[in-house]
Prior knowledge:
Structural class: mainly alpha
Oligomer: single chain
Number of domains: 1
Amino acid sequence: MARWTAADIPWVAFEPARLDADLLKLVKAASVVERNAADYTAYLRAVFRGEPTFLAIADGWQADEERHGDVLGRYAEMADPGFDFPSRFRRFVDGYRIPLDRATSVRGSLTGEMLARCIVETGTSSLYSALGDATEEPLLKAICRRIAADEFRHYKMFYEVMRALAQRERVPVFRRLAVAVGRVREADDDELSYAWYAANEAEGVPYERRSCARAYARRAFGCYRDKHAERAVSMIMKAVGLAPHGWLAANAKRFAKWKMAALAAA
């Protein structure tokens, strides 16, 4: 059951004069990604078809993600009356689809698949935390805090499933680290850049992956502060099975802060 609904959002608190135009573009891109949870759930249901523990939580996760997309889309329409969320979402799914014809994980194991989900939830929870801290617009701040809390909860949920699977499958730490690094690198794939394009570019403008990826990264990582980067790295290290506050984590945090600052300045 949902912990909150659109009816719980303080829509009357909207103060458009306090909204940054670049942050609104980021909200628009996030809305179409979040709303696309059905495809991911279909893929995960196929991969985890023999795992009742995961299947029991899959529908709730999908409902949360779709609600996030709908709420962000409604917010974007309030902030920009020319933004048509349903048509922008259709544009996104028409141009970006994940493969739904697989019956086994692309990560090589169920543990790896759940670890990849932990990485995704790390990214989304840190993004909405950063966006909520960056904006001065009270309604967006309230929305981001609710979504970030959901994403942190999803991380914990997937982490517990992954721990149980790891005990059974005995996937070594170095393989889990490889999955984590691979999934972090996939942040550069077409999903986020195409979401930026579908949500923000006018009809008839050709898709240029590199420029859209740069535009998304500049706005997203421009919201991050040290605390967001450090928490994200700690969550990833914990999921991999490494000390979240050890020397390796300290070096990873320094690199993450440098990389995020470079992307924000690009």
